[in-house]
Each structure stands twice: as C-alpha cells, then as structure tokens.
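Quick one: structure tokens for this chain, please?
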Amino acid sequence: MRRYAIWSSVDWPSRRMVMGGFFQMHSDLHPETQIDLFITEPFDFEEEYAGALVGELLPALSSRFVRLATLIRMKEAAGREKDREDIRQLQMLAKESADE
C-alpha cells in the first residue's frame, strides 16, 4: 500500500505558495511531476464540472478538464513566468477553435 502513498513524505519546507492562491507540491517518488493545490476555487466548480471536457487518460480511466478559457484565466491569475508561453499557445489554440 505504501507504493500508492506518494504524499506521505512531503518535504513541507519545499512547498511554495505562489501568486494565484495555490501551493505547488511534488512527491519524492515523482519529483518531476508538480501538483498545484488551490487554496480557493479559481472558478465556479458546478459550472466548470457541467461544461468540462471529458477525456480518457488511460483505457477505462477518464478525467474531466476545465474549459480552455478557464485554463487561460487560471494561468493568467497565477502570474508565473513559466505560464506566459502556455498562455500564448492556449490563446492561439482558442482562436483556431473559434475560427472553425
């Protein structure tokens, strides 16, 4: 069971509160994969859940994803340097989708 408890040894001093109201954390087992944990809901949950894109991550494992416009707003609110290029790319994708 310990194999699945990836957050059991979180190095609390390494947590970072960043602009946008969330913590960034990672597991010692998967340091390359950061997780953003929101302190407050950055959107209306019920609205996003209803309009979410549903995709299959693995066979028989589906997940919901926020809408593109919401993801852009979340990245803008975070104010991180690393999100700037993501925002530019996502805005281009949104424009392409609107043009179709």
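Residues 81-99 form the longest helix (19 residues).
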